[in-house]
## 1
Amino acid sequence: MATGIPNFAVRTAIRAGFDAKKTEVHGAAQRGGSVVSHVRYAPKVYSPLIPAGEADILVSLEKLEGLRWAHYVRAGGTITLNTEERVPASIDGKPVEYPKEIAPFLAGKGFIVRSIDAQAIAIELGNYRAANIVLLGTIINNDASSVAIIKNPDDNKVNGYRSGEVVDIIRSEDVKVIEIMNCRVVIERQRTGRETIKCKDLGEIASTSPAAPSGRRTPGRGPKSESSEGSLDNEGISKVGENEYEVSRELLEDVLSDPTNIIQQARVIPQEDGLRFFGIRSNSIFWKIGIKNGDTLHKINNVELNDVEKALSVFEELRSQSNFTIDFTRAGKQYTYEYNVK
């Protein structure tokens, strides 16, 4: 259940004079899991948790989730199903058939089942968001290879798309990228036609045109320690050598669990030999690992960073690494930083 629904239910109950409590579990949604919420209201509520088999109403925004959580509903209780069908991320791409006739099956178990097309209702209300799309930023190039960085907030999947490409992280309908501009993208939905989406307020994310190559790189020793680097201690990362850092696993999990946290933390300009970083936010993952404004990142774990899409996937993969290296250029000199994750 989306978090807005339980909030609305609690406020309504309180205004009607009831005591109301809610609880929700949504952390797993960042990895393709469900958002599950419990709401209870009565003259006096002592706990928000509803025991299995005692819920009066179940609202499911996807049919299969309604089937999954039906055991929480009492005999004769009501189950409201959105007619949308979405394959769970855990089995996406596997040869598994989506269950048929979910509503009749539940009705046969003694539940009162109501099916609604929430997408059609939203379209009629003029606020269609069934195919949720968030524009995180745009990488503007002089040629035809400009890229729109798009996120599906339902499962937090992020990918980059060029003009003419289908946004494959949206499965509820066909969405195609038509035109990419500075922090604006024209998309075409199969159901409602063309519309323009804009960057969220995430700071300066969209890049300008690519700058000239950063020039010849010459090997150099690590840059001198600065107060900003010294302050990294006790922030989940410590500098243990001239070019060596120790990173806590907890920090890495925290900052990399949501791809949005990566793309919004700096302004990135593609170069011929890597990605140049500007506008790095304090306490961002880049700041914490010692990257500075003007640095050009060439490789992570020897994987060349020749576009933003690849960089996003490489950063996400760091969550499972016990150590990694970053090759970059600063002020014309090449450096390699080593990181141990503990």
Note: The first strand starts at residue 19 and ends at 25.
## 2
Amino acid sequence: MMRTSRNEEEIFKDLESICSHNSYLYAIAYFCLRDNTIKYRKKFSKEEVLQQFNPDRLVRTEISTLIGLAIKRGITHTPPSTRELRNLVKTTEELLSELHFSMLAPDNKATSSEAKIRFPSIQNRIKEAAFYSGEGAYIYQYKEFAKIKFENDSVHLQNEFGFNISQAHDVFEAIENIHSKKINDFQPNKIEFKIIESLACFKFTLEELSYTCKQKLEIVKKIVNNFSCNKEDIKASFKSLTSFNPYNAFPIVKLEENTFLCFQIYSLYEALYESPVFFLNESETYSSTASKNRGYFTEKFCFDRLTSIFEKKRVFSNIEIVTKKNEPLSEIDILVLYGDIAIIVQAKSKRLTIESRKGNLSMIQRDFKLAIQDAYDQAAKTANNILNPTRRFRNSQKEYIDITRKIRVVYPIILLSDYYPSLTTQTREFLTLKNLTGLSAPFISDIFTLDIISEFLTSPLYFLSYIDRRVNYFNKIHINHELTTLSVHLAHNLWIEQGYEGIYFTEDCAAELDAAVLVRKYDLPGNKTPTGILTKFKNTFYQKIIHQLDQGESMQQIELGLFLLKLSENSILDINYNLNLIIKQTLHDRGIHDFSLVFEDLNTGLTFHTSFLNFTEAQQILEMHCVARKYKSRIDKWFGIFIHPISKIILIINYLNSEWEFSTDLENLSKDLRQTNENIRRVDNIEIGRNSQCPCGSGKKYKKCCL
């Protein structure tokens, strides 16, 4: 990154000047071919995705800025010489590097001398995160969700603009197909960069488009014209790096009378998802209806995704909380009830305004309050009512929901329907939390993230385990996008050792998740699931236990499931090995066998018991054993699990949860416990190294045995 003493405005002017070169469209074509394509051969994996994290690559927002500035000065496309193209590329890269550095300049207004030297201002941190962070959604999400988002607006769009969202979707898909074919034809024959042909990769005509998408030429023309930007609009608004660039909303460029350019397919589908809002808001009489439709879309989307995880019987929408006298207290967009746990979702259709993107701190804070803080405050108020056992719940038809269990904990989830740049940065800086027993820290993200979470964490326990872990590390994790944390969790089971104040995950941590999503959605050759918690323990005792626990929702089942999902790979291998051992022993001698593990860092222990005893006898022995083990180990929580040796089904779960206290009776009881290593082990919930001895007892290195 090029250091500079110049400010952002000075660099932006130089950038605007070079983009006015009459051959600059060819430089843009070069950047798009180099930086917007991923190449793979036999298998698509994270190594291919990591190409996108090359520091020399331009991010899409940088390329969009270049395109906007090129349009601003007027479209010309005189082919350059090879030398001219190289100079244009080199100068552009230097200016963009200098521009990025200017955003990271130390804050001269900071109160501490250290901050002045090391840290940019909060405005610049948010502005930098908004401009340089990764994409807000996968391209398929914009493409698929746009049709659902504006489905209820189709009649208005048809009447006022001559097309509906499905027709626009089909036209954009045709542009994508034309674009892909030309690029694929261009790339394999590449010996040296072909300047003339490069720009042709991004061209299309209306007739070509009409033929490809099987739509009437008149409709195609209306769609293309409505999503095309023009010089006058850009000149009027695009005056600084963070001011509104109309190209982002209207990413088709008119080259000649019947010929157009589309440089970035991602921008095209992003516009399909976001830009119809501009069309709908042109009508004062319809804008309120359009707003209601977007709200309905957001709520229904979240409802459908949560239903896919928790089943319909546990998910409720548009819930009102009332007193015993039916006096209204608060409302919930979506409520999930799972055992003694409640999830309340506040679904919002809010976006970061143009003034906030410019770094206006007061506007940033205002936008955040309207989008996040108000939603969180509403969720906290609702949680307070939910935790009160006297409150009643009813749906929009005034039908009451019977809640037989007292709610122990409430997880508030705030979800936005649009990508909100620098959301995690702003949340750390601005969110004011409520101190309420039973209320967790919030999970704040968008519907695109929820879509991916529900794609991979498909059961209640896996979903809750991630949300619980994530909110408990609320202030410790530093990221640009939530999917980075999810990817780390899927690979390594999210865990931060005690003593660490915080951890920063870079965006390339999400490469394996990105690869898995693309393999799934585009039917590419490769792994559909990242290697980690969802793959390493398939068909083991551990996975079968989690599956059994997922079928119920008693407090004991949920607590045991969440605890087991916190364990390290080392601990899970211990459980699998010892369970297999004691079941074999019981089948051999028809005796009583058990083993116990103590997790001092989690203040929890567990005992697995297997025998042919009847239910009552097994319950008595297991309970006595757990009480004695818990006391002997001087910890607060203990699980006892009775597994039948033939069916391998959990028959009994014993859960003790109380602060340890001295007891003469328990002192005597615990003296009789065996102290052999076969019976009880103390373990740390940490990962084992590849070169460590395998915990299965084979004597081999872990990497050559059970890894």
Note: The two ends are 40 Å apart (CA to CA).
